[in-house]
From TrEMBL:
Keywords: Redox-active center, Signal. The lineage of its organism: Bacteria, Pseudomonadati, Pseudomonadota, Gammaproteobacteria, Lysobacterales. Residues 1-27 form the signal peptide. Coiled coil: none annotated. It comes from Dyella nitratireducens. InterPro entries: AhpC/TSA (IPR000866), Thioredoxin-like_sf (IPR036249), Thioredoxin_CS (IPR017937), Thioredoxin_domain (IPR013766), Thioredoxin_ResA/DsbE_sf (IPR050553). This is Thioredoxin domain-containing protein. Residues 30-172 form the Thioredoxin domain.
Length: 175
């Protein structure tokens, strides 16, 4: 009934299907220099920390999982940096992509960190897109503006040098 499909049209159809599937992976509202999208961390102990309540602080949103080896390497570094710079106005919020079945492992990691942790629940985060690779972090300045988009980082893993270059200047900048 439909006859033979032109190979060129088949390629176009396949490309359109691929774009439809891949687009949500990267779809977000992030623009460096503009307001960061709202997000709230529901911590493991039942507290809620909204990004909007942290105005005046420098905020690192970090997304990780217990099964992510690079995450496990950078979390202690990020924790130590947060401990050292809390007095300077730094807040780190950790969003775990683990599910509730892994709560024991998540709590074991959280107990060693100096910043609050919560389960993300859904990898589709309004404004930030679908969290599809880990680790990924976003930096928000004291005015609530996005200053570092983790999706665009060539090497998104934290190192001391990267923290010193990206975050430390924000901590010493006046409000």
């Amino acid at each position: 009934m439909f006859g033979r499909i032109n190979p060129y049209m088949r390629c176009i159809a396949a490309a359109m299907m691929l774009m439809t599937v891949a687009l949500p992976l990267r779809a977000n509202d992030l623009v460096v220099g503009k307001s960061a999208p709202p997000i709230t961390l529901s911590t493991l102990d039942g507290k809620h920390i909204a990004l909007s309540d942290l105005r005046g602080k420098v905020v690192i949103l970090t997304f990780w999982a217990t099964w992510c080896a690079p995450c496990q390497q950078e979390l202690p570094l990020l924790s130590e940096y947060a401990r050292e710079h809390t007095k300077d106005g730094l807040v780190v919020l950790g969003f775990s992509l683990d599910d509730a079945d892994n709560m024991k492992q998540v709590r074991a990691v959280a107990d060693r960190l100096s910043f609050p942790i919560g389960l993300l629940g859904d990898p589709h985060v309004p404004g930030y897109g679908r969290i599809w690779h880990l680790p990924v972090s976003f930096i928000i300045d004291r005015n609530g503006l996005l200053v570092d988009d983790g999706w665009k980082d060539k090497d998104p893993s934290w190192t001391q040098a990267r923290l010193d270059n990206v975050v430390t200047p924000l901590l010493s900048a006046a409000d």
